[in-house]
Design brief:
It holds the Pfam family ABC_tran. With 255 residues, the protein is an alpha/beta fold. Helix 2 crosses helix 3 and helix 2 runs parallel beside helix 4. It contains seven helices and ten strands. It has two domains: 178 residues, P-loop containing nucleotide triphosphate hydrolases (Rossmann fold); 67 residues. Helix content is 34%, strand content 25%. It binds adenosine-5'-diphosphate and magnesium ion.
C-alpha cells in the first residue's frame, strides 16, 4: 500500500490583481520505507506542494492520502523539516529536539530522555544544554532533522534541507542522512534542486517542470542499498544526471 499519495493536486493563488497557477495535476506516491525525491526549478511550487501535504494550505483541487485515508487539509500527520532549521532560540538543544514528541502528547521527561539518547548519534554529544546560536548551520540542520525524525509521524517531508550549506558540509550531511535513514527506514519525500543529491539519496525521483509545475518524468534510481559514495563515480550515475539535466534545461529555455 502507498504510505503517502497525492491525487491530481492543482493549486492556484488568487491575488488582488491576478491568479497564479502554481501546481498542475500533481500525482505522486511514496511507498512504505521509500526515499523519494522531487526535483524542480526554483519557484516551481515545491514548497507549496509540501504546505499542501502538511495541511497548511488546502489545494484548489485534488487530494492527499495517507495510509489509504483521505487527509486533505489535515495538519500534524506528517513530520516536516523546513528549508531553514527553525529552532526556537530560547529553548536549548535537547528541548528543541523534544518538541515534536511533546506536541504529539509525549511526556516532557520521556521526550527529553529520547533527545539525550539520540543527540550523540548525530554527533552532538555535549551540546544538549547549549542554545541554537552556538551551533554551526550544519549542526542546526541535524537538530532540526532529529526533531522531525523523533516525532511519531511515519512520513517525513524534507524541504531542501541542505540548500544553505557549503558544498563540503552538504556532502557530509547527505552521507549522514543516508546512514541514519538506512538504520531507521522512514518514508521520506525529499525536495531538492540538486540532481546529484537526488540521485545519491533516492529510490525514485519525480522531475517537475517550471511553474505551474507538472510531473515531467518519474525515474527509478538503480543503485543498490546501502548506498556507497562510489556510485558518484559510476557511468550510469553520469548518464542519469545528464538526462535529468537536459530535461531541466529544456524547461529553463521555455521560461
Ligand atoms: N500564498 C501565496 N500567494 C501567492 N503566490 C504564492 C504563494 N505561495 C507561493 N506562491 C508562488 O508560488 C510559486 C512557487 O513557490 P514555491 O512553492 O515556494 O516554489 P519552490 O519551493 O519550488 O521554489 C512562486 O511563484 C511563489 O511566488
Ligand atoms: Mg521552496
Amino acid at each position: 500500500m502507498n504510505k503517502l499519495e497525492l491525487k491530481s493536486i492543482h493549486q492556484t493563488f488568487t491575488g488582488k490583481k491576478q491568479r497564479t497557477s502554481v501546481l498542475s495535476d500533481i500525482s505522486l506516491h511514496v511507498k512504505e520505507g521509500e526515499f523519494v525525491s522531487v526535483i524542480g526549478p526554483s519557484g516551481s511550487g515545491k514548497s507549496t506542494l509540501f504546505h499542501i501535504i502538511g495541511g497548511l494550505i488546502a489545494p484548489s483541487s485534488g487530494e492527499v492520502w495517507l495510509d489509504g485515508r483521505n487527509v486533505t487539509g489535515r495538519k500534524g500527520l506528517i513530520s516536516y523539516m523546513p528549508q531553514q532549521p527553525a529552532l526556537f532560540p530560547w529553548r536549548n538543544i535537547e528541548s528543541n529536539v523534544a518538541l515534536a514528541q511533546e506536541v504529539a502528547g509525549e511526556s516532557r521527561d520521556a521526550a527529553l530522555e529520547k533527545a539525550r539518547e539520540w543527540l550523540p548519534k548525530v554527533g552532538l554529544s555535549g551540546y544538549e544544554r547549549e542554545y541554537p546560536h552556538v551551533l554551526s548551520g550544519g549542526m542546526q540542520q541535524r537538530v532540526s532533522f532529529l526533531r522531525a525524525l523523533l516525532g511519531p509521524q511515519e512520513v517525513m517531508c524534507l524541504d531542501e534541507p541542505f540548500g544553505s550549506l557549503d558544498a563540503l558540509t552538504r556532502q557530509e550531511m547527505q552521507a549522514w542522512l543516508l546512514n541514519i535513514w538506512e538504520q531507521n527506514k522512514r518514508s521520506i519525500l525529499f525536495v531538492t534542486h540538486s540532481i546529484e543529491e537526488a540521485l545519491f539519496l533516492s529510490d525514485r525521483i519525480y522531475v517537475l517542470s517550471n511553474k505551474p509545475a507538472r510531473i515531467l518524468e518519474e525515474l527509478v534510481v538503480p543503485f543498490a542499498r546501502p548506498r556507497q559514495e562510489d556510485v558518484l563515480l559510476k557511468a550510469e550515475f553520469h548518464e542519469l544526471r545528464q538526462h535529468i539535466q537536459s530535461r531541466l534545461r529544456q524547461e529553463l529555455s521555455h521560461e
